[in-house]
Amino acid sequence: MSNTEHGSLSINSENIFPIIKKWLYSDHDIFYRELISNGCDAVTKLKKLELMSEYSIPEGEELCIRILVNPEEKTIKVIDNGIGMTADEVKEYINQIAFSGAAAFLEKYKDKTNEDQIIGHFGLGFYSAFMVAHKVTIDSLSWQAGAKPVHWESEEGVDFEMGEGDYADRGTQITLYLNEDSYEFSNEYRAKEVIEKYCSFMPVPIYFKNENIEEKPEDEETVEEEDIESAEGEEDIIDAEVSEDGKAQTVEKEEKKKGPKPLNDTAPLWTKHPNDCTEEKYKEFYRNVFHDYKEPLFWIHLNMDYPFNLKGILYFPKINTEYDSIEGTIKLYNNQVFIADNIKEVIPEFMMLLKGVIDCPDLPLNVSRSALQNDGFVKKISDYITKKIADKLSGMYKVERENYEKYWDDISPFIKFGCLKDEKFRDKMKDYIIYKNLEKKYITVDEYLEAAKKVQEDTVKAESPEGADSSESADSKGQQGEDKDAAAQGDNAQESGKSEGTSSDSSDTSEKEPKKDVIYYVTDEQQQSQYVRMFKEQGIDAVILTHTIDQAFISQLEQANDKIRFQRIDSDLTDTFKEEVGAEDAEELKKEADDLTELFRKVLGKEKLEVKVEKLKDVKVSAMVTLSEESRRMQDMMKMYNAYGMDPSMFASQETLVLNANNSLVQYVFTHKEGEHVPMFCEQLYDLALISHKPLAPEAMTKFIERSNEIMLLLAK
Q1: Among 243, 511, 557, 710, which residue's CB has the most CB atoms within a 10 Å radius?
Q2: Where do the domains of the chain lie, and which CATH numbers do they carry?
Q3: What does the pLDDT read at residue 180?
């Protein structure tokens, strides 16, 4: 090597190189991305020069990146036919760490081009090679007329040698001599795996070759004589297809390209206009990128040029499992260069349930390109993505309500999670939250309340006899209306307090605590089937909320709207399910309740058990257990936060056993309090009521079965 120059690398900060090698990049395989990105930059710069008429690319030359691995020699070559470097440029960009060639190029041509397509910004990517190689060489020939080839090499990245080389092709060849613990990267399959991970969509074709394998030329396709005859006189071979209208049409066959195919897709789907993308292309892209062969529900194509450049595709997968166990994948790209998965600064937390790609050249990346700098601009990008998702969902609700309902069970955890985590998203989606009712129809809160109001009005009309005394009728209607209103609103506790207090107290309470519209809900249709049946028989609706996220979600709704309240159907019995009783009957029921409370507490050993006796319309129902909504939510909260150390008995007083005075078994217990089998009947009644409320504990279930067998034996005698 003539005119050899010796020297030491000039670094901008003492001991920075060990940091670059060991700490700047968390994954050692990242060197493939950095070196290939540099090659893409070199190609992009050459294209820019041609556009500015400063250089003419030879006709027929394909600008590309070539990766050559040699497992025997333990080497990797990254070759581009881009702009190349002169000796002075090597000194400037390689020997001085952290001086970016991309930045210098942009500065020089800032009035003639833009930086959108230049990947590199920091000039550190090259040195990632020393994480895996003990020796690195550079051979380069600049595009400039009369330029001489340059050779550069360095052992361990500390000292270098540089001089005139013999590289004859425009562009740059970087050769890595791998460390012993990095031999894997010269393995063909491992190399392809890493390139696919980081470089699948880089804008320049990437070709791969194992230097130890001799590639055989592809055999030319043979053509049958009859095919030649049939095609005689035609310039192109054509296929006949049948169109939708039944007419034959011809389609030209695409010529099969011979030779190697690039590893990457230089024009991924997100770079195209949505109008140019078919449903099948979206699904194919999803399968190829995420290796998920379940079809996505639908997708959103992001395409924005102002005020920042952002493109991407977000897919809604089928997400009907527990929301906290779902893990989506949002791949973040910068100029088609893979950065990382699920970067929380760009991707709102609730979007982590989705799968998709986002490409934003404007992202303020740090020097390793693996994370984002703290920048307010990033928040704007995140807000834009949130807005686009909300617009897509609300638009689907308005225009494609049928599809929206079809997808709802799968996407509702995502939407509810988004409402909990993002206030702006909640504000945009609040009118488009739907619920499945007891008839398996989807309704909004407003639709539910409107239907409940109509049922209430119809009930009042049906129970008000025509032709009755006007004043009596008016009073009756007023009282019935008040009772029905209280029932429909689920404000039973409030109404009870009023009846026991003075009229002035009632008035004050009414002013301070306005009535709320109650939305009844079901969490387990099977477990709560008895209550569901009673609701249906009385024409009262409820919504089905079976997901773990629902409890937190309805609490948020109640906070946002103080006019509504959610109440589980087994939390109380409204007047709708009860017979109307006179003052005399009410007094008798109170006496029965006192006596039965004493009896059941003694038999069951539950001193704080509250017992009520009501005349229910359904005589088949013997007993029911209710637990106030507030107590249940407290218990759910305790479980959520694993607060099992708290004494559950503190909520026991809220559990109420409701006995039906119209049921024969309850009547028998009341009239035979001292009977031999009454304690057993009391236990059975309680367990029967509890079963419709929640599952019995294993020990309690065993006793229930034994007791049931004993009762059947009594009947058999």
Answers
A1: 557
A2: 5-210 (3.30.565.10), 269-429 (3.30.230.80), 434-572 (no CATH), 578-717 (1.20.120.790)
A3: 93
